[in-house]
């Protein structure tokens, strides 16, 4: 609650900020954005959101093909995904790390992620109006091939927090924590990577993030250049959108809470003192962390929320503009796995990596 009250204390009268939970929709090797049609894709993902998700949703509007969602706001049929985290045992076998729900979400949500759509920051939406993403819009953040600390440090939207409790915020690192974390590891994905302002408050990673769209392309060959990424502009606070990317869209962010506590006994950790967690990409440093997004809000529901002054759960009915469903309803939505391999048992190799 501590962190949340700090965020709440910053709330001024004229902005909207969405923060909501989505339970797990599917854990499998599919990637319709980067590897459309590849069944299976290169590595395992955890996907949340609408059940329009499949291997080939290359241009479609998932808000018209899905009929349920794992997200609290029931008009949000978007898909959100990241790599999956595994524990590597001393005997070389792997076990997927369970996920737990963040604090202050709809009760009973199973696994999943916390999703944010914010404006300029928690004090103000700035001078510009925020334009919701358009049907068919998609983008990625980070890259599964990032393998140097330099590149990871520069990608400031991609960070980890070693959770002392579910509410720990700040103290972010570009690589996996090197010590056992009492409440697990939070993986943070901010679209886009953005210089972190030097604000000494715990909600720091949620502030002054600006996203700018070129206003024309729903996607681009690298899935990123239709958006303005401040990684290209070095470590500067986000300014106004450049003329190449003039449209202010919401700042999108994911938080995933990986419950590593079942693996925190140091006698299980590698004898060389290194940490034992690996992304499904095979990366044991954490540099390859990445996120994918396909927009899928029904009609103008996201725009209505962005035009409102609501905050967090206040954006839901009956007082806010968005429809809400219960955690139990969220958990009921799922997609059948197209790729039927085992991702959950004790595995001799990571799926797709022999
Ligand atoms: C994926 O969904 C789209 C849109 O509903 C559909 O056209 C396509 O056939 C589906 N592909 C697979 C592999 O199920
Ligand atoms: C919802 O979509 C799923 C998967 O596309 C389909 O199997 C199911 O029949 C649909 N249910 C309803 C009530 O339309
Ligand atoms: C923002 O939107 C409002 C309502 O549509 C409009 O009156 C105003 O001029 C817009 N502001 C800017 C900076 O575009
Ligand atoms: C995290 O994992 C541990 C060990 O399996 C379990 O006891 C605990 O209940 C889990 N915590 C949450 C919040 O799910």
UniProtKB/TrEMBL annotation:
<dbReference type="Pfam" id="PF09362">
    <property type="entry name" value="DUF1996"/>
</dbReference>
<feature type="signal peptide">
    <location>
        <begin position="1"/>
        <end position="16"/>
    </location>
</feature>
<protein>
    <recommendedName>
        <fullName>DUF1996 domain-containing protein</fullName>
    </recommendedName>
</protein>
<feature type="domain" description="DUF1996">
    <location>
        <begin position="31"/>
        <end position="297"/>
    </location>
</feature>
<dbReference type="InterPro" id="IPR018535">
    <property type="entry name" value="DUF1996"/>
</dbReference>
<keyword id="KW-0732">Signal</keyword>
